[in-house]
Specification:
Blueprint: H1 2-7, E1 12-15, E2 22-23, E3 26-27, H2 31-41, E4 45-49, H3 56-64, E5 75-77, H4 82-88, E6 95-99, H5 102-110, E7 114-115, H6 121-124, E8 131-133, H7 141-154, E9 158-160, E10 166-170, E11 173-176, H8 178-189, E12 194-195, H9 201-214, E13 222-226, H10 229-238, E14 242-246, H11 254-264, E15 270-272
Parallel strand pairs: 1-4, 1-13, 4-5, 6-7, 6-8, 8-9, 9-12, 13-14, 14-15
Antiparallel strand pairs: 2-3, 10-11
């Protein structure tokens, strides 16, 4: 297995989840056995995902149901980056508008923010010290309008946990996610969005902090594994890490991936058909 040989050249692997470990509701064939082997023999693997629509324990539980045993403490989600970002911006204890589902709001609370209730959003938007775009699920038009006015009239900053515009859902389909909404604020209202997930630095900083806290590795040799050139691959390269692109998710063929590399002027360290190649 070529991928296993590559992994063993590094101290730690930061591995994406959707499109790398599973597609839709099915684990990619061979992945559970690979994870078991890495768990027993190393190197340690931490899982880094732009998912902001489910809490880490929910993601871990869902993955276990398809045979993927991923401890919550080894999972770094884009929503968790708020635990770094809100203190940096002096927003702990501050009222914030949360766009998305209940999990997105809970990420804000766990980071120390005070979520303005949806039913009060239109009335209380002038109080909002910021807008967090956490997911595209269960959108409330009143909250969206309140967020627009908090930015337009009160210059509230915007934070987006997941910069992706689309994500694959399985069976070849895609769905619109948080980054698409945040880009409307950026393009139409001129606000500089604070992007927290891949390919941006904050999520990688959180991941490395987690690695250091759970291992004795102060300056680990890191390999980033992802299925998307413009997400984990670009982000990993910008951090100075080696990268492995797998063609099991977002990029549907090697030709498509090569076109994306040429457009983005980026080339991964390795390109494999899948993480179990």
């Amino acid at each position: 297995m070529q991928s296993l040989e590559i992994f063993r050249a590094y101290d730690v692997v930061l591995c994406d989840v959707d499109g790398v470990l599973h597609l839709g509701r099915d684990a990619i064939e061979g992945v559970p056995a690979l994870l078991d082997r890495l768990d027993a023999e190393g190197p340690p693997v931490f899982f880094i995902t732009n998912n902001g629509t489910a809490l880490p324990e929910q993601i871990s539980q869902g993955l276990s149901q398809i045979g993927l045993r991923i401890p919550t403490e080894n999972l770094i989600t884009a929503g968790e980056v708020l635990t770094l970002e809100l203190p940096r911006r002096d927003l702990v204890g501050a009222p914030l508008l949360s766009i998305g589902n209940e999990a997105a709001a809970e990420y804000v609370r766990r980071a120390g923010g005070v979520v303005i209730a949806n039913a009060e959003a239109r009335r209380r938007y002038p109080e909002a010290r910021g807008v967090v775009v956490g997911s595209s699920r269960q959108l409330d038009k009143d909250v969206l309008d309140a967020a627009c006015n908090a930015v337009y009239r009160c210059a509230a900053p915007v934070f987006c946990t997941n910069p992706d515009v689309f994500t694959p859902t399985g069976a070849g389909e895609i769905t619109l996610v948080a980054g698409a909404l945040a880009r409307i604020f950026e393009r139409e209202l001129g606000v500089q969005v604070q992007w927290l997930g891949k390919p941006y630095r904050p999520i990688f900083e959180l991941a490395i902090a987690r690695v250091r806290a759970r291992t004795s590795l102060a300056s680990p040799r890191v390999l980033v594994v992802d299925d998307n050139i413009e997400s984990g691959i670009r982000g990993g390269a910008q951090m100075g890490f080696d990268t492995m692109l797998v063609l099991s998710g977002w990029h549907r063929s090697r030709d498509e991936a090569e076109s994306a590399m040429a457009r983005g002027e980026i080339r991964p360290t390795y390109v494999l058909d899948s993480v179990v190649s």
